[in-house]
Write a structure and sequence with these properties.
The strands form 4 sheets. The protein has a 6-stranded mixed sheet with strand order 10-16-15-13-11-12. Strands 7-8-9-4-14 form a 5-stranded mixed sheet, with helices on one face. A 3-stranded antiparallel sheet has the order 3-6-5. The longest helix has 20 residues, at 469-488. The chain has helices at 3-13, 36-44, 46-60, 71-82, 103-116, 151-162, 199-217, 231-241, 247-258, 289-302, 306-322, 364-380, 386-393, 469-488, 494-505, and strands at residues 17-21, 24-28, 65-68, 90-99, 122-127, 130-135, 143-146, 174-181, 185-193, 283-288, 326-334, 349-357, 406-411, 424-428, 441-448, 455-462. It has 3 domains: 3-60, Non-ribosomal peptide synthase, adenylation domain (Arc Repressor Mutant, subunit A, Orthogonal Bundle); 65-234, 2-Layer Sandwich (Chloramphenicol Acetyltransferase); 279-414 and 431-505, Chloramphenicol Acetyltransferase. The protein is α+β, with helices and mostly antiparallel strands and 506 residues long. The mean pLDDT is 87. 32% of the residues are buried.
């Protein structure tokens, strides 16, 4: 073995990765792994290492790269095979642009991002018995310009776009559409498949659109730090976890199921089932800053987070509408782990299954304590999702039987203000959302601040075949009332709170 290959083997054994940033040699190393002896060897062989990496880069730059599936890709690949025309997992963001937009520069900006982030050149394939993500060496961004659009047409055009499914085997997980309007206006619609969506991914995407656009307008190149790792490296990290000790994760899920299978819900609503399955209404809700501050004060006094207070009211709402005290709720958390993935585009979301027991009629403070413990336990075991461990823990379980039928997604921050284009006024179009939903009920909430004040904003996706228009409106009203009841009387029991709801309804 040559000295260079021997050195690379030595570095790989302690998880040190070398890469080039232009002409400069960079490294990615766990804390304490780069000893003085290794640092000295790197310095001694630096010129040879750079030549070796450049030769490898040149030999592979025109070849597709292969990575294993991430856990999320395994999950959504399976769902796509069952329902190839599904549009549930399209996450839209729209921005109204006013001013002298340079469309050629915008296109160059998107192409630069696609060149920088491998996941935007990736398709999912089943080859020779293996599931692989295939990274194309080059690709152009899927940016389509739609000219001469009238304002009256815009809503339908956006709706049409949201009903076009992604084909993960042939296309990118990002579609961009620019609708050109009169009076120097345009609307930029970004459709992200959930495989590339979480808050950090959205933040990175919007920030890089801005950075490339502004630099190119000035005749420069964007000064962005190199990506230490790509999404394929993230997937490899996840697969490597499967070789680590699994017993504590298995123990967690065995304890979870020792309580029995989650009870099946029957919604206490009057809506018949004539509406199409998975078609949801979009209902928007805003909670003012006064209520938000009260919720934060209650959370602080109980040693929990704002998110947990929202979860407490949501669990009681579900109990009220299902008469089921064994409440299982899906909720999303970012699971990036290593700092090297901070600027990576690609989903790191873990969907946790929180099981909340309400049969003993706890007061709000006791319920908040239970939720805090549940969240801590779930987060400690989120690195490998239940779907991956299921064949060991519950081999008899039907593969796609969901553990939950309702989701709460809380965004502590939003990246909507990250898009800034030189010479163009940018306004985030808040009320653009996907009307398709697989869960029975989906609530997304985020903290909001801006010209129109601060508070909590969010939207609900109740399935139309389960909730009538009147029932959906009452659902939102009841949730706000539960939040108000909780902050006013945290020592009261949840059945007392539900009785108050019924009194108000009468």
């Amino acid at each position: 073995m040559s000295p260079i290959n021997a050195l690379f083997a030595k570095l790989a054994a302690v998880d040190i990765r070398l890469f080039l940033d232009g002409e400069r040699l960079r490294f990615d190393a766990p804390q304490g792994a780069l000893t003085d002896a290794l640092r000295s060897e790197l310095q001694t062989h630096k010129a040879d290492i750079i030549a070796h990496l450049q030769a490898h880069q040149a030999s592979t730059q025109n070849e597709p790269r292969h990575y294993p599936f991430s856990f999320a890709q395994q999950h959504f690949w399976s769902l796509q095979q069952l329902n190839p025309t599904d549009c549930f997992y399209t996450v839209p963001f729209a921005f109204r642009l006013t001013g002298e937009l340079n469309i050629d520069v915008l296109r160059q900006s998107f192409n630069a991002i696609v060149s920088r982030h491998e996941i935007l050149r990736t398709t999912l394939q089943h080859l020779e018995g293996k599931h692989l993500q295939i990274v194309a060496p080059t690709a152009d961004a899927d940016l389509v310009i739609v000219k001469n659009v009238l304002e009256a047409q815009l809503s339908q055009l956006i709706s049409d776009e949201l009903h076009i499914p992604f084909d993960l085997t042939t296309a990118s997980c990002l579609r961009a559409r620019l609708f050109s309007l009169p009076d120097n206006q345009a609307v930029l619609l970004l459709c992200l498949h959930i495989l590339i969506y979480d808050q950090r991914s959205l933040n990175a995407l919007l920030y890089e659109i801005s950075a490339h656009y502004d630099a190119l307008i000035a005749g420069k190149s964007a000064n962005l730090p190199p990506l230490a790792l790509q999404y394929g490296d993230y997937a490899k990290d996840q697969q490597d976890l499967l070789a680590t000790p699994m017993q504590h994760r298995i123990d967690y899920w065995q304890t979870w199921f020792a309580q029995g299978e989650p009870q099946q819900w029957t919604w206490q609503t009057q809506q018949d089932s004539r509406a199409p399955a998975f078609e949801a209404d979009i209902l928007w809700q805003h909670f003012d800053s006064h209520l938000m501050q009260q919720l934060k004060l209650l959370a602080q006094s109980c040693g929990v987070t704002l998110y947990m207070t929202l979860m407490a009211a949501y669990s009681v709402l579900l109990y009220r509408y299902t008469d089921c005290p064994d409440v299982v709720i899906g909720t999303t958390f970012a699971n990036r782990g290593r700092w090297q993935f901070d600027n990576m585009i690609g989903s790191s979301l873990s969907v946790l299954s929180l099981r909340i027991h309400l049969e003993h009629n706890p007061d709000w403070q006791t319920l908040l304590n239970q939720i805090r413990e549940n969240v801590a336990q779930a987060m400690a075991h989120q690195d490998i999702p239940f779907r991956v461990i299921m064949p060991i823990v519950q081999p008899e379980r039907t593969q796609f039987t969901p553990l939950f039928h309702a989701i709460l997604s809380f965004l502590a921050e939003t990246a909507h203000n990250e898009l800034n284009l030189t010479g163009v006024k940018v306004e985030f179009m808040e009320h653009v959302a996907n009307p398709s939903s697989r869960p029975d009920l989906y609530l997304t909430v985020w903290e909001k601040s801006g010209d129109n004040g601060e508070g909590l904003s969010g939207y609900w996706l109740p399935q139309k075949n389960l909730f009538s228009d009147a029932e959906s409106a009452l659902l939102l009203q009841h949730y706000q009332q539960l939040l108000q009841i909780m902050v006013q009387a945290p020592n009261h029991t949840i059945k007392h709170a539900m009785a108050e709801l019924d009194c108000v309804a009468q």
